[in-house]
Amino acid sequence: MKILKFSKKYLGQYIFQLTIFVMLSLVSTAIGILSPYIIGAFLDTLILGGDIHAILRFSAIFGGLNIIRILKGYITSIMYIKIKTKMSYDLNGDAIKHIQNSSLSYINQNNSVYLNHRVNLDANEIITFCITIMQSIATNVVMLIVPFAILLYMNPLMALALTGFLILYVILYFTFKNPLYKSNLALKEFQNKFFSSLFEQLKYIKLIKLNAIQREMNRRMDMDFVPFRNAAIRRQKVSYLYSGLDGFVSTLAQIVLFVIGGYQILVGNFTIGMFTVFTSYFSMMLGASRYFFGLGASYQQTLVAFDRITEIFSQEIEICGDEVLDDIWKIELCNVSFSYIANDKDESSDNKKILRNFNAIFEKGKIYAITGGNGAGKSTLINLMMGMYIKEFHGSISYNGIDVRSINMEKARRTLLGITAQEPMLISDTIRYNLTFESSDDAEYKENSQHNTNQQQALDAHLQTLNMTDFIAKNTLELTINDKNTSTSGGEKQKIAILNVLMKDSAVMIFDEPTSALDKQTSENLMAYLCQIKRDKIIILITHDNHGIRLCDEIVDMAV
User: Cα–Cα distance between 332 and 246 in angstroms, integer?
Assistant: First the structure.
């Protein structure tokens, strides 16, 4: 089964615990198989004139077995939740890491809330299915084979006649296999989109209230609800029909059992106790058969989750070369063309391209101003230089004469490239974390005291440059930044984003409209500082600020 093969990595980590889990589950199965025999023997003993000692003996045996089953149930339930939560987390984490390493084009094409809900839901469903199937298949195979062997021994003809219903279950499953899969797939897709729409109503609540567009936004939510509701109804119809036929076959089998079994009692072939045992074992066998019938529906539902999560893992990850740069002194773009159409290899489709045969050189010791109107491709250019669309452009981009595709751009972005966007991209955490991306609780962070001292000295200097000394003195670096933080203005958030780049002190510094939300004095301080450090840097500004442009060494006009 391909779902189990896919999950082998996660199941293998807990093979010992899973083995114990399955073995303990088989204890309940063994008790369940013994119980009908004990009850049947008890009834026949009473009919034949048993005494109080027989009653007490049977009661003690029956009670002891069920106490064992209850204790086993507690242990396995704790084991199940421990294994399931960790395995689900591991699969969820691997999927998120793969998305993080995928092309930016793929990420841009999918709503982040939709992806998150989809990954979480599908990972949990796959792991739950795998653990459950390992437990349930073992127990139900035993519940199918052992009772069938006992029934064959008790009455072969009657046992074989009743197995015909098992064949009927198989026929019904293959009849409903495709409708079950399609209805579950449609429901999951529309469910994810609908929940994404619900989240949107709260994510943009400030925008909604400021513009009084509740009605329009609610209409968007209603439009996503309708296909979700229709898919839910469709899936319920198919599922109920499937389960309803299960109930019909089960009822029919019970009727046949009563007719044949009752006749066997009348002709003297069965005692009441024997019939009770036969009925109980047949119910076990029928229950196991119904489990496998229901497993068919569960498999089709989980197959949807499997196909959706493997679709994520099938996304080609971002290429990362082997060349590691120690410094950057020259960035060159030669005849670079780019389109947001995924895998666009058609050079003739110039009308689709954001960049067409673009050329530029950025060298250490200079400040560059990138100018041009909206849609000119300024932000796209920066993303290309950062290696975010490393397989999706034509032409060449090189660092120090080395092709960008041969460079380990992940390491370069981590240490040599610093960038801040026009709209500050801050994590919902403290100012300190947004500057260092290090938790003050980390042992490594606490031990590196010299690094922390140097970092503090640099921080104090940069706070003065950005006129943030009073702000930090009042709020401290432990102030949490989030969407609901009304004490932090847009300008202060932009300063924090700029401060992050300054603290990184990378070889290449890129600022997208760095002065758009800054006061005049802070803008002048920032530009003066950049001029001071440019000797050892490549500094790139996307800006419309005339004062900033005048201080730049070269202008790259994207409108040309």
Answer: 68
Q: CB under 8 Å to 226, separation ≥6 — which residues?
A: none
Please give the distance of CA 262 from its chain centroid, rounded to a whole number: 55
pLDDT of residue 560: 57
* Stretch (H or E) spanning 360: strand 353-363
Secondary structure of residue 232 in the 3-state scheme: helix
First to last CA, the chain: 58
Rg (CA), the chain: 34
Q: What angle do CA 401, 402, 403 make, to 5 degrees?
A: 120
Buried b (16+ CB within 10 A) or exposed e, 364-399: bebbbbbbbeeebbbbbbbbbbbbbbbebbbbebbb
Tell me the Ramachandran region of residue 400: left when phi exceeds 0, alpha when psi lies from -120 to 50, beta otherwise. Answer: left
Q: What is the pTM of this model?
A: 0.70
* Nearest in space to 371 (alpha carbons), one of 502, 231, 546, 130: 546
Pairing of strands 366-371, 538-542: parallel
CB hemisphere CA count around 209 (13 angstroms) = 5
Q: How far is C-alpha 99 from the chain's CA centre?
A: 9
Pairing of strands 508-512, 417-420: parallel
Phi-psi category of residue 372: left, alpha or beta, with phi > 0 → left and psi -120 to 50 → alpha: left
DSSP secondary structure letters along 160-214: HHHTHHHHHHHHHHHHHHHHHHHHHHHHHHHHHHHHHHHHHHHHTHHHHHHHT-H
Give the mean model confidence (pLDDT) for residues 377-395: 89
Quote the CA–CA distance of 61 and 39 in Å, as a whole number: 10
CB 69 within 8 A of CB 28: yes
Asked if residues 354 and 373 have their Cβ atoms less than 8 Å apart, the reply is: no
Which SS3 state, helix, strand or coil, does residue 363 take?
Answer: strand
What is the side-by-side strand order in the sheet with 353-363? 353-363, 330-339, 393-399, 402-403
- What is the phi/psi pair of residue 506, to 5°? -80, 165
In single-letter form, the type of residue at position 496 comes to I
Q: What is the pLDDT of residues 509-547, one digit of tens each?
A: 999 988 888 888 999 999 999 999 999 999 999 988 888
Q: Are the C-beta atoms of residues 187 and 231 closer than 8 Å to each other?
A: yes
Share of the chain above pLDDT 90, in %: 20
